[in-house]
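Lab notebook: predicted structure, single chain.

Context: the supervisor wants predicted structures on file for every construct in the current expression panel, including those that have not yet been purified. This is the next one on the list. No modifications to the sequence; it matches the entry in the shared construct table.
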Amino acid sequence: MNSTRTSPRRHRIAIGLLTLAWAAGCGSSEESVPPTWSGPAPKPAVTITIEHQNYTGTPPITPGATLTVVNHDSFKHSITSKRPGLFDREIGPGQTITFTAPDEVGSHPFYCRYHANMEGALSVRKSISP
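Prediction complete. Output recorded below exactly as produced.
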C-alpha cells in the first residue's frame, strides 16, 4: 500500500530538525553586534527645564553626560532617581544646577520628591559610530 500520509514519527522528526536549525541560528557568536537605536543620537550634554511642575522631555544622553537642570517654577523641586543612591538633587525656585549623568547604559526613571505627578527618565546609551 502506498500512502500519501506522513507518519507521526516522520512529522516529529521534521519538527525536531526545524527546531534544531532555528536554535542554531539563535545561538551566540564570537562577533559582537552593537545595538541599534532609533531616534536621535545621544548627546554629551543636555538641559532639562522644569516649568509648570513638568520636566521637559530629555533626549538620549551619553554615559557621564553633563546635565543642567533649570527650575522656572516659583517653588523647590528635585530630580531624584527611582533607584536609590543614583542621583538626588534639589533645585530651588529660579535656580540652575549641573551634575553628571550615570555611566550605566539604560533607562533611569526619576521623579520630584515634592510633587508626585512629576516624573521623567534619562535614556543613557553609547554613541554608535557609523
